[in-house]
Each structure stands twice: as structure tokens, then as C-alpha cells.
Amino acid sequence: MSTEFHRRYVWPFWLRLAHWVIVLSMLMLIASGWLLGSGHLVNELLVEGLHGTHLLSGQLLGLALVLRLGMLFVDASAAGWRALRVTANDAQGAAEMLRFYLAFGRRRMPGFYAHDPLWKLVYPAFFFLLLFQTFSGLGLEYGYLRSVLRLGSDYLSAWHATGAVLLIWLSGLHVAAVLLREVRSKGCEVSAMLHGYRLFEVDRDGLPDVQPKTGRGVSVTLDPRAKSSKDAD
């Protein structure tokens, strides 16, 4: 029996751009922040260069975050706030996804169109942490912001470090969840964030929770016999 899939354009370009700029900026921030905080660097030029890299990466992260949050209000597809709105159906979907993750993918994964219904509950915390890290980092860099916030540099630095740890843990869980879905499903979870398209198994996913405005899509029929013959060769 052949299995039919629909290939749908889910993630718009500007969301994908913001996503990958945030990812790359965070990697640079984590690496440079850890090196600067390790206390093992004695070369002043290296310290100054890493500090500049950390500051530039933070500014790029802030710009990408502005773009991503702006899309919540101007985009009508999967990047908009409606796609992140938690509905009654999401409660059941979130519970099923939680069981799927706790079973390390051994349970059946429920279908969803764009955002994982469980991670819909987590994204507000993720956005808040990104905003907090951006503003606290700017406060550490520019003294007049600390005076406005009435916070000392030591106090703000401690909170900035704590936020970084929380963000690293949350990002690690997000990556693990995406990789598990990639392995256990056929939705092209990772590559979809590169080209924007996801695959939907017709007899499993049902109706999407967000209807794309573009209408771009294509049906693909996968025949297991073709795979078998290819393997035989």
C-alpha cells in the first residue's frame, strides 16, 4: 500500500531568517560569554576582541528578536500570534506530545500543522528570556541604562548569567525535541526551517491548525515497493 503526503509551505522566509540569526547569535554569545567569564584569558587584545564579538552578537540577536516579535503582529500565517494561540484542541495535543517525549518517541506522535502544541506553552518563556538577556546585556554595557533601572552591575551580571543558563537549557530541550520529531516522524522538521516546507501524511494529520495564505503545496506519493526495489539493486 502506498502512502500519500502533502508538501505544504509552512514557515515564511522572514521567520526562518530570524530563527537562524538567533541560533547563530546565541552560539557566539554562549562561546564568547563562557570564555570571558572563565577568567583564564590574560591577553588583553583577545579579551577585547571577544568582548566586541559578544556585544555584536547580542546586537544581532536583538535585531532578529525584533523581527520575530514583529511578525507576531503583521504575519497571518504560521509566524503570527494566532498560530501560537493555545486552543482547546492544543490541550489534548500538548498532553499527547508530552507522552511522546517522555516515551522517547516510542509512542505515536500526534499531527500538527506548524507549532508543536506542547511548545506553544513554552515559547512565551523563551521570548521573555531572549528579551531579558538582550536588555540585561545592554545594561551591563551601558551604565546609563543601569542607572535608569536602578540596578548595580554585580546584581545585573548575576541575573544575566542565570538567564544565560536557563536559555541554554531551554534551547537544548528544544533541539532535542526537534531531533526526536525528525527521527520519529516524516514531517521534515529540520530541513523545513531551511526551505519552509513540511510533509503531512494525509491519513494521519487531518486538518491543519493554521491555514496558510500562500496555498503553495504539492501531493507526493511514496510507494514502499519503489524503495524495496532500490534497496535490492
Task: Provide a short characterization of the protein structure.
The chain is mainly alpha-helical. 66% of the residues lie in helices and 8% in strands. It contains ten helices and three strands, in the order E-H-H-H-H-H-H-H-H-E-H-E-H.
Verbal overview:
- By secondary structure, the protein is mainly alpha-helical.
- It has one domain: Transmembrane di-heme cytochromes, Chain C (Fumarate Reductase Cytochrome B subunit), CATH 1.20.950.20.
- It is 66% helix and 8% strand.
- Strands 2-1-3 form a three-stranded antiparallel sheet.
- Helix 1 (13-38) runs antiparallel to helix 2, helix 2 crosses helix 5 and helix 5 (123-141) packs antiparallel against helix 7 (153-184).
- The protein is elongated, with a radius of gyration of 21 Å.
- The two termini are 21 Å apart.
- Mean pLDDT is 82; it is low at 204-215 and 218-233.
Please describe the topology of this protein.
Layout: E1 3-9, H1 13-38, H2 44-74, H3 81-84, H4 88-102, H5 123-141, H6 143-149, H7 153-184, H8 189-195, E2 197-201, H9 202-205, E3 217-222, H10 224-232
Helix pairs in contact: 1-2, 2-5, 5-6, 5-7
Descriptive terms for the model:
233 residues; mainly alpha; Fumarate Reductase Cytochrome B subunit; 3-stranded antiparallel beta sheet; 66% helix; 8% strand; disordered C terminus
